[in-house]
Amino acid sequence: MSGAPPRRAGAAPRPAAFLDRDGVLNEDRGYVHRAEDFQLLPGVVQALQLLAREYVLVVVTNQSGIARGYYTEAQHHALSEHLCALLRPAGVALGGIYHCPHHPEAALAQWRLDCDCRKPAPGLILRAASELGLDLPASLLAGDRGSDVAAGRAAGVGRCFLIGGEDEARATGADGAFASLLDCAKAVLR
Hints:
Layout: E1 16-19, H1 44-51, E2 56-62, H2 64-67, H3 73-87, E3 96-100, H4 123-132, E4 140-143, H5 146-155, E5 159-163, H6 166-172, E6 176-178, H7 181-188
Parallel strand pairs: 1-2, 1-4, 2-3, 4-5, 5-6
């Protein structure tokens, strides 16, 4: 799913802000898949407006609820459309939403896979970089777990930030920790 203009042939790679979804953009209520359960966190729209000035906005999210049979891939896509619809009035367009539906111990055999796209593996980020023409060393990542930071590091993302606990930031090797995506965006763009 892409909302940003397609990359022109021969265009210089662009930096991206890779963003985890649950816990960074919206409240993590456990396997969120319905619009009525989806709540953006305070300051997220403003943070995205700020980041979009310099970065292509790309959501990278593990969605093991698909593999566990809690919801379908079609429901995930519908919720992604809902997210885009929430952001559109504020002038925010996402360059893409990349998800991993797999889990090595999935209840559904079709999704039972130890893949290269499930964070902490870098596959989602690398695919987005290839498809969207992104400059990974000039990019940043904001996630709420060590697996997000590990995926960013493995992909070669220049700066990786943790949204949440400072103690975990030290343990994961994140470049910094912030209470919210808005705090992160303000610090990065200072």
